[in-house]
From TrEMBL, chain A:
Organism, scientific name: Paenibacillus glacialis
PROSITE patterns, per the entry: ABC_TRANSPORTER_1 (PS00211), ABC_TRANSPORTER_2 (PS50893)
Protein name in UniProt: Sodium ABC transporter ATP-binding protein
GO molecular function: ATP binding; ATP hydrolysis activity
UniProt keyword Repeat present: no
ABC transporter domain: residues covered: 4-231
Keywords, in A-Z order: ATP-binding, Nucleotide-binding, Transport
Keyword Nucleotide-binding: yes
Family membership: Belongs to the ABC transporter superfamily.
Cited InterPro entries: AAA+_ATPase (IPR003593), ABC_transporter-like_ATP-bd (IPR003439), ABC_transporter-like_CS (IPR017871), ABC_transporter_ATP-binding (IPR050763), DrrA1/2-like_C (IPR025302), P-loop_NTPase (IPR027417)
UniProtKB/TrEMBL annotation, chain B:
Taxonomic lineage: Bacteria, Bacillati, Bacillota, Bacilli, Bacillales
Positions of transmembrane segments: 22-44, 201-222, 251-275, 296-322, 328-348, 384-405
Topology with respect to the bilayer: Multi-pass membrane protein
ABC-2 type transporter transmembrane domain residues: 21-405
Subcellular location: Cell membrane
Full protein name: ABC transporter permease
Molecular function as annotated in GO: ABC-type transporter activity
Amino acid sequence: MESLKLEKVTKQFGDKTAVNELSLQVEKGEIYGLLGANGAGKTTTMRMVLGLIYPDGGSIRYNGKPHNDELRQIMGYLPEERGLYPKIKVSDQINYLAQLRGMPRKDADKSLRYWLERFEVPEYYDKRIEELSKGNQQKIGFIAAVVHKPQILILDEAFSGLDPVNVELLKSTVKELRDQGTSILFSTHRMEHVEELCQNITIMHRSNPIVQGSLKEIKGRYPREQVALGTTSEVTGLENIPGVSKVTIQEQGGYLIAISDTSAAQQILQTAMLQSVVEKFELKEPTLNQIFIKEVGESHE
Amino acid sequence: MNKNKLGTVIGFTFRNKVKTKAFLITTLVLAIIISIAINIPYLIQLFTGEDLKSEGTKIGLVYGQQVELAGQLDSYWKEQNNDEFTFMKYDTSDAAVLKKDIEDGKIDGYLEFSEEQATLFPSVVYSSNEDDGLNPIAQAELSAALQAVKMQVIVKDSLTAEQIAELKTPVQFDAQNINANPNASTVVEEKDEAAEMMEFGVVYLLIILFFFTSMTTGNMIAAEVTTEKSSRIMEILITSVSPLTQMFGKVIGMFLVGLTQIVTFILVIIGNLLMPQNKELLADFNIDLSQVSIDVIVYGFLFYVLGYFLYAVLFAAVGSIVSRTEDLGQAVMPITMLSLAAFYIGSFSMGAPDSMLMKVSSFIPFLSPTTMIVRIGIGEIAMWEIWVSILIMLVSILFFGWLSAKIYRTGVLMYGKRPTIKELRKAMKAYKI
């Protein structure tokens, strides 16, 4: 059964529609990607899921039930502009937040110690937030979202501002939570994270869901329009092959060839094999980034 | 509202506020100031009073031409058994000798009768090397003594000793309150006056305590809410615990902080008053702590609690609509004004507690915490008036609590510039609050 199900959810602020008929569902143990430009309606959607604001139309169901007070205990939230009390000790505030979520203080403390250990920062237990670096504050913010072992976890831009090492650390943690059965609604601008983590996604644009479905199926919908070619020596005449629209010589050697017709790929390979030794040949599937740009019309990296 | 969570919020608010340096330092500084203020009379006595008593003033009495007068003055003074000053006899009127004795410290100054005989009694001159001459008490005693001598000189033997004594006693002038119990003895009346003084002091103390603690704790609430908002922890909090629980947890937690402070101050005051040197002083001023009327204390506490909650919910609401701590001062201005009005109406009307202004304002929720205390403590008030005022307070707390909770619920999600009332109402509608 799906942990979280949105059906034709609509939200209006005055005359402006913030979210228009959005439907999606997150299964138990799934990471669902919510993509969109700034102002596309992601945060409003998340706030509705959290019960901070109520939808004007449609319904949101959690484990089959409508919003209720018990949800506060089974939901975890990492806001985009994450915040903690700057002047209060890590242990004090995490335990406080966990207790507010209905966890007994003793369990909360145990859970906090586990997570600090997991992130290799046990010495932060007695530190104040203002003493920590921004990246480390984010780790603590993440702990605040998961310390009470939520069933439904909402992550808004979970990895922004982290260095690559910490991104990997957090990514593996998120996967671990997923494998333990947590349903995760995940929003980000970083397409490579979505490609790595999510099975299903929604791309929102100006309040409307414009692309929805499983990542594989979405990619299948878009034609393969790029060929990557690597050879030992120069290959000429590639731009004369019918169906080839553009040839780019890459910095690190090799060619990136844009094609308008998939059949051109075979001809490219044959031409290359006649002139040189082919080291690499790939008919690339479109990246999510390309799909996103194509649909939304602008880059959001 | 979940009781457990309310307790968690209260505990968290209380613990973190009481632990802050700012709180500890303010409380300590104020406790020291209170201690000093209470001990000021004793300290003044220590530095001045004792000095004067240890060595009585010595006045040289120049007999010179007026031997008879000087002798009469000296003997009259001896009869009085007053050690404010003593006379030392000088037969000579040689200014140089007298001046030298003043410089040597043998005498503080000297008294001389003029030689003119134009009037029945000569004028008197006191000479010393001090700018202010005799101290006021000695001066008054001296002129009384001279007056007595003058009378003796003038009436000579034409009146009997009793008649002279009768002349000297001032006219008995008594003020009488026709409403007072005619059987009451003067002793009881005196006590009433002391009790009234005491009540006056207690009322004033209560007003100051109310004003001071509600303002500081109220501002702390607003600052706390704004900090939570600006540090964005609010978004996590609001998904963990209902805004109503959050707001009232904070208000109650901060109330306990204020109470802790008040209890500390009261302990400091009582502790100081019980010190031996101040005990005597209290007795001198006829002040007896047991005379403090319990009514004033009980109602004072009741109105303090009600007033605190009324102001506190407003502070929380204001804190919730402000996004940055820098904007907070401006935003709480109207509440500060309101509390200042309550403070000044209350304290300036202590002389006229039954005026129309007081009667009206003791039923206005934001003003009644101070004005009602003045009326209960100093003025005359009927029991029903007190309870009507309390009822009005309770209703206002419910109303403003409800309104503030709505504003809080909306405000904490609104970032950016401070919203106008119109924007706030629009947002409330949009959020369906």
